[in-house]
Amino acid sequence: MDDQIRQAAVAAARHLLLLYKAEHPAWTDTRTPVDDLVSWSGLQVETFHATDYPQGTYGFLEPDEDLIWLCRTLPESLRRFTLAHELGHAVLHRDNARRRPLLQESWQAASLPPTSQSLPELSREDPCQRPDVQEEVVGQNEQELLQEVLGIGQSYNPRSERELAANIFAAELLMPIEQVRTLYLHE
User: Fold this and answer.
1) Which of helix, strand or coil describes residue 129?
2) Do the bridges between strand 67-71 and strand 128-129 make them parallel or antiparallel, or are there none, so unpaired?
3) Angstrom distance (rounded) from CA 168 to CA 6
4) Beta strands across the sheet bearing 57-61
5) Which of 70, 131, 170, 185 has the greatest count of CB atoms below 10 A from its CB?
6) Where are the domains of the chain?
7) What is the pTM of this model?
8) CA-to-CA distance for 140 and 182, rounded, in angstroms?
9) Strand ranges (DSSP E) for 24-167?
């Protein structure tokens, strides 16, 4: 993954948390209020039944709407991560008047140029599924085939970069690295 995309995802998550904390000084809990962050970001959430979409579909961002769809049968930890992942798509990959300043400020804070133009558009026909919320985005056979075609250690897939950026955003949002370090050092 392009380090610039990784840095932009981390910077956007950190900046979103900083802005939220500034507007909600009463929030002092270590648990990220992802549902509140989604609402505060101008997004709504609806659920679907697991059989409404292909098996393994966890969620997606409705095209041209500020709406996140989540599978209603997800365990709570996976629901929170998927919701944060979809929020990452909204912040990183969707142009929106409310979220645009957030992303531009994040890029500036990280001294990065905008990157969302290089990533493919989101589509309802291409929802986030099980492989998209895992670090390993392709199976072993597919990875071996990619390495044969592209060369060892080479793998380029705009969709997987988009999904990894959303995963990195979600991870930083839910488990900010500085907070993890602090908790680890004090435990």
Assistant:
1) strand
2) unpaired
3) 7
4) 44-48, 67-71, 57-61, 128-129
5) 170
6) 3-186
7) 0.72
8) 36
9) 44-48, 57-61, 67-71, 128-129
- List of residues 6+ apart from 4 with CB closer than 8 A: 112, 113, 115
Q: Kindly state the tokens that stand for 158.
A: 């705009």
Per-residue pLDDT reduced to its tens digit, 6-51: 888 999 999 999 999 999 999 988 899 999 999 999 999 999 999 9
Supply angle C-alpha 131, 79, 34, rounded to 5: 120
SS3 label, residue 48: strand
Please state, in angstroms and as integers, the Cα–Cα distance from residue 182 to each residue in 28, 161, 176, 178, 185, following that order: 15, 29, 10, 6, 5
How far apart are alpha carbons 176 and 122 in whole angstroms? 26
Q: Which two tokens stand for residue 138?
A: 């392709």
The one-character DSSP state at 60 is E
**Cβ contact 24:37 at 8 Å:** no
Question: Distance between CA atoms of 15 and 18, rounded to whole angstroms?
Answer: 5
Other Cβ atoms less than 10 A from the Cβ of 166: the count is 28
Is-contact 116 93, C-beta < 8 A?
A: yes
Question: What is the C-alpha to C-alpha distance for residues 100 and 112, in angstroms, rounded to an integer?
Answer: 15
- Stated as kind and residue range, the H or E segment containing 101 is helix 100-109
Give the pLDDT confidence of 90-140 residue by residue, as tens digits.
998 887 655 566 666 655 655 544 444 444 444 555 556 555 554 444 455
